[in-house]
Design a protein that fits this description.
The complex is a heterodimer of chains A (about 350) and B (about 250). Chain A has about 350 residues and is α/β, with parallel strands linked by helices. Helices cover about 40% and strands about 20% of the residues of chain A. Chain B is of the alpha/beta class and about 250 residues long. Chain B has a single domain, classed as Thiamin diphosphate (ThDP)-binding fold, Pyr/PP domains (Rossmann fold). Chain B is built from 10 helices and 7 strands. The chains are: A alpha/beta (about 350), B alpha/beta (about 250). Chains A and B meet through helix 3, helix 4 and strand 9 of A and strand 1, strand 2, helix 3 and helix 5 of B.
Chain lengths: ~350, ~250
């Protein structure tokens, strides 16, 4: 397929179809509505399952059921909707079931706004659901990267039996770019889903149960240890980041998603002024690319964390930096997008931005 | 010569039931399990366990199962049935789970005419958590959160699920039964069987509400609890067929 011009949310939907999605369960919320709208037509036309649920709570539990039944299943939502899905997400993670959750962030807290934001970094990486669990979280910066990661996410979710969240913001959802849907996906060996609840006639002699309940504390601790081992493996295998302009920098910017795109422009502008600035662009937010910070030269003047929030990824930057360099913060929130000049200005006046 | 007159149904596992003496969960489990065997659908059935005393039903029904978050059983069942339409999917839920926190999931599954079967156990109280007031608790019923008795002005009236659901187009079969004597147990069995037969025939949403018991949290002996379910509960929750779209 040649390159096509497509809107982010529709590209998310088509990428999911290309990735082999069997079922979508969702509930309307701005700014992700084109995802279910597109799938309501094209997924049904493909003979697959699309269902608009009565609530986000119900939608994620439909995902839970279909994931347990061994199907490739997804939902998409935006900030307050993802908040409602956290209950089901915790159960899915606890029962070790694969699925894809697309989160198209808008401003918050509460009903907030419908404009782009990155205020749900905590929600994605720390979770609002209960218990010791992690999602695998990818935060692409373009529609092309979103397509590529969504196609791969189903394989990754199946491989680790873990929910994957693709975290974008309303800007990526609403803008249009020229994209290619047929870029190759990394081959992975995916074992048969012999754990799926498909009826015992499909696996005689064994009952399959999807469950997250372990009343015996020793058994639950063993389950927690097992999950933690899996998260360590995910950290080892799936950490993703991009290093940009990493030649002898004065400063380092750390930014993801839409903010990374704006920072790219700022870096070019600074270069023209003779100020070399590099960027660490985390692509996986869990696992967080702490190893990228080992590549920062000793003589940099500081690290500027840039986010469309009041500072959430900042926590992970401080952990990864581990006191080695000064860390500053620049953020816009509430749906406001900065001009690259604001980041240029923040670098030039870095000392005013220092947090720690 | 020995002849087997009765044996435990293959529809149940050998796991020891966790239910209290005098609670009807054990009886209803048996009826559901026998039905799955008799209809030849056990090996393609998927049970959805809910939250409450029956949370461990996934260990008792001898088929595949999923354990749902509180109230969400019908959402899981929908998710499964839509991707595995050839399988038999049923939920097993109490009144706290279905009539309180999960009423939205249940109503909308019914309204979509999801081709699933809901076994709804109504014992007018929260059993697992220790006897709190349920949406189905009777007026005047003393519970740990209505210690002077349920007061209509303060708490509202017991919610009548079967009466409500009878108004929903997607419901194919809906009956309220009881388990307080052998005659009614036999009747309950035939209602459960009919519900699963309708699911096999793709007729839509089916539900059997069972007026049940909770001797421990009602503070009664088992025999008295059976009597109370008949004398106090049945007048509020009258038995009968509320909806039947028919065999055709």
């Amino acid at each position: 397929m040649a390159k096509v011009l497509m809107k982010g949310n529709e590209a998310i939907a088509l990428a999911a179809i290309k990735g082999g999605v069997d079922a979508f369960y969702g509930y309307p919320i701005t700014p992700q509505n084109e995802v279910p709208e597109y799938l309501s037509k094209h997924l049904l036309d493909a003979g697959k399952v699309f269902l608009q649920a009565e609530s986000e709570v119900s939608a994620i539990n439909m995902v839970y059921g279909a994931a347990g039944a061994g199907k490739r299943v997804m939902t998409s939502s935006s900030s307050p909707g993802i908040a409602l899905k956290q209950e089901g997400i915790s159960y899915i993670a606890g029962a070790e079931l694969p699925c894809l959750i697309v989160s198209v962030m808008r401003g918050g807290p509460g009903l907030g706004s419908i404009q782009p934001s990155q205020g749900d970094y905590y929600q994605a990486t720390r979770g609002g659901g209960n218990g010791d669990y992690h999602l695998i979280v990818f935060a692409p910066e373009s529609i092309q990267e979103t397509i590529d990661v969504i196609k791969e996410s189903f394989d990754i979710a199946d491989y680790y039996r873990n929910p994957v969240m693709v975290l974008v913001d309303g800007l990526i959802g609403q803008m249009m770019e020229s994209v290619d849907f047929d870029r190759p996906v990394k081959e992975r060996f995916l074992p048969e889903k012999d754990w799926a609840t498909t009826g015992t006639k499909n696996h005689p002699g064994r009952r399959n149960v999807a469950n997250s309940l372990y009343l015996d504390p020793q058994a639950l601790e063993q389950h927690n240890i097992h999950l933690n081992e899996k998260y360590k493996l995910i950290k080892k295998n799936e950490t993703r980041f991009e290093l940009i302009n990493f030649d002898n920098p004065e400063y380092i910017i750390v930014a993801y998603g839409t903010m990374a795109r704006i920072a790219r422009s700022a870096i070019e502008m600074l270069k023209k002024e003779g100020i070399e600035v590099s960027m660490i662009r985390p692509i996986s937010l869990f696992p967080y690319p702490e190893i990228a910070f080992d590549k920062i030269p000793e003589n940099v003047k500081g690290i500027l964390t840039c986010e469309l929030s009041m500072g959430q990824m900042l926590d992970d930057v401080l952990i990864a930096n581990n006191g080695r360099h000064k860390v500053g913060f620049f953020g816009r929130a509430g749906g406001m997008l900065p001009d690259p000049e604001e980041i240029v200005d923040a670098i030039k006046n870095f000392n005013e931005r220092v947090v720690k | 010569m020995w002849e087997t007159k009765y044996e435990k149904t293959q529809g149940l596992t050998d796991k020891k039931l966790s239910y209290c003496p005098g609670c009807a969960h054990g009886i209803i489990h048996k009826l559901v399990a026998e039905t799955l065997v008799e209809l030849g659908i056990l090996d393609r059935s998927i049970a959805i366990a809910s939250v409450g005393c029956s949370v461990f039903s996934y260990e008792f029904f001898n088929c595949d199962a999923q354990q749902a978050p509180h109230g969400r059983a019908c959402a899981l069942a929908t998710g499964i049935k839509r991707v595995l339409p050839e399988n038999i999917v049923f939920t097993y839920q109490g009144d706290g789970d279905l009539a309180s926190i999960g009423i939205a999931e249940t109503i909308h599954a019914a309204n979509r005419g999801e081709n699933i079967t809901v076994i709804f156990i109504n014992n007018a109280i929260y059993g697992m958590t220790g006897g709190q007031m349920a949406p189905t608790s009777l007026i005047g019923q003393k519970t740990t959160t209505s210690q002077d008795g349920r007061d209509q002005a303060h708490h509202g009236s017991p919610i009548k699920i079967s009466e409500m659901f009878a108004t929903i187009d997607g419901v194919a079969y809906l009956e309220r039964v009881a388990a307080y004597d052998p005659k009614h147990v036999i009747k309950a069995k035939s209602a459960i069987k009919k519900a699963f037969q309708y699911q096999i025939a793709n007729k839509g949403f089916t539900m059997v509400e069972v007026v049940s018991t909770c001797p421990v949290n009602w503070g009664m002996k088992p025999v008295d609890a059976m009597k109370w379910s008949k004398e106090a509960m049945e007048p509020v929750f009258p038995l009968g067929v509320f909806k039947d779209k028919g065999e055709k």
